[in-house]
Amino acid sequence: MTVRLFDTYSRSVREFQPLDPPRVGLYACGLTVYDYAHIGNLRSYIFEDILRRVLEFNGFTVRHVVNITDVGHLVSDADVGEDKMEKGSRRSGRTAWEIAELYTKAFQEDFRNLNILEPVIWCRATDHIPEQIAFIACIEAKGFAYLTSDGLYFDTSKLQDYGRLARLDVEGLKAGSRVDMAEKRNVTDFALWKFSPRDQQRQMEWESPWGIGFPGWHIECSAMAAKYLGPFFDIHCGGEDHISVHHPNEIAQTQVCYGTNLANFWMHGYFLQLGQMKMAKSRGDFLRLQTLIDRDIDPLAYRYFCLNAHYRSRLNFGWEGLDGAATALERLRIASYEMGEAGTPNEAKVAEFREQVNNDLNMPRALAVTWELVKGDLPDATKKGTLLEFDKVLGLGLADWQPVREVLPEAILLLVEQRQDARAGKRWQEADALRDQIHAAGYEIEDAAEGPRVRRRM
Ligand code: AMP
Ligand code: ZN
């Protein structure tokens, strides 16, 4: 069965074939670590995790690379304003290096809490300055860079199809632009290397052939992706905001240096929003995963919440929606637990599930197939085996889940109640008969001071 994925570059769903089967190179733009990730950011990483799991479900081996942006992302995406890291440092009274460390660790902890598979490679921008300098030097040598008083810029007018990914109307942009161009030659030009301000020492700065400074935001991804996955690999991902600036710039840099489009598929996860507003770190009122945990919400309920929507549609966050997801997850866990030991999966059901996930990751439909299985009339062991197959993609940790307290079937609860009544009325024979009935159904009962304790018999 083939995997079909939406490729933003061609604006179409295309059949996915690895360039070098069974290996698949997958690069996901990582977090800018000047603050905690918000649950919007995490929706993008859940989407990418599902993508990886679906590829693995189809027998591919995925080399999943996630970078950490710890330098160079300016407050505005347009190369003006302060570096987010230096700003975060001022706000918190810690060094830029300390906050990078702190928020990277927290981000990785979010991955674990959401059951997102550990990337094969985590790479930090600041650990790859020589690679970025070499990449910039290559762009300069090919005649696509020019110097201004504050840095070295990429001349986008020299590339014929600059902005193709975004379907950018470069002429229209020029005409309508009110952006302060400073010394930029074209509105869409962007910094490859920025100089440290003359009057001030930055915390993060390096020597380079052009002067002391730091890399522009986009070069890190071109350089690290090429290093770990080669100059043309299978899939590059990010959130929808990257369609307009960051990814066109990554493509432009790589086209100049390697003559490729960097990736065969470009995939974008749509935003989580609060009302009509996108959730953004810069607004400061965002929700962290930890905020949910502090409210006693299982982080996997948020994962389930995200699976309810297709990755190419915006998702509105709401507490009722999240509660609904938490309840559904709890039901699924209990149902799975009560199925007991896993037997051989049902091939037809697995194929049905695969059809949905292979159809551009249709997780809402995949969840519907999951519930049909749970409510259907296959033997429990078959159901459980099939469900655990599905969970390789869903990632809800069903195999390991255990109820905090034993969850008792309704019928047993009723017998326990009747026995309590019989005991209260001193009808001992009846109470004993009920105990036997409970025992025969596979449960044992122990009378403790606070009432009867009932457990499944071992
Ligand atoms: P950043 O830390 O801004 O570099 O963003 C990290 C990742 O989160 C990028 O892939 C963004 O596209 C993505 N992202 C940012 N905001 C949201 C949001 N509200 N919903 C989903 N993804 C987002
Ligand atoms: Zn990137």
State the gist of this model:
The protein is α/β, with parallel strands linked by helices and 458 residues long. Helices cover 42% and strands 17% of the residues. The radius of gyration is 27 Å and the shape is elongated.
Task: Please supply descriptive tags for the structure shown above.
about 450 residues; alpha/beta; Rossmann fold; Four Helix Bundle (Hemerythrin (Met), subunit A); 3 domains; four-stranded antiparallel β-sheet; 15 helices; about 40% helix; about 15% strand; binds adenosine monophosphate; binds zinc ion
Q: How would you characterize this protein structure?
A:
The chain has 458 residues and is α/β, with parallel strands linked by helices. The protein has 3 domains: 4-269, HUPs (Rossmann fold, 3-Layer(aba) Sandwich), CATH 3.40.50; 307-400, Four Helix Bundle (Hemerythrin (Met), subunit A) (Up-down Bundle), CATH 1.20.120; 410-456. 42% of the residues lie in helices and 17% in strands. The chain has a 5-stranded parallel sheet with strand order 5-4-3-10-11, with helices on both faces. Strand 12 (272-274) and strand 13 form a beta hairpin. Helix 11 (347-358) runs parallel beside helix 13 (380-394). It is elongated and about 95 Å long. The two termini are 42 Å apart. The structure holds adenosine monophosphate and zinc ion. Zinc ion binds at residues 29, 221, 246, 250.
What's the topology here?
Blueprint: E1 3-7, E2 12-16, E3 23-28, H1 39-57, E4 61-68, H2 84-92, H3 96-113, E5 121-124, H4 129-141, E6 145-148, E7 151-154, H5 170-176, E8 190-195, E9 213-215, H6 219-229, E10 233-239, H7 246-258, E11 263-269, E12 272-274, E13 277-278, H8 289-294, H9 299-307, E14 315-316, H10 319-338, H11 347-358, H12 363-375, H13 380-394, H14 410-424, H15 428-440, E15 443-448, E16 451-456
Parallel strand pairs: 3-4, 3-10, 4-5, 10-11, 12-14
Antiparallel strand pairs: 1-2, 6-7, 7-8, 8-9, 12-13, 15-16
Helix pairs in contact: 1-9, 2-3, 4-6, 6-7, 9-10, 11-12, 11-13, 12-13, 14-15
Bound molecules: adenosine monophosphate and zinc ion.
The site of adenosine monophosphate has 17 residues, from helix 1 and strand 10.
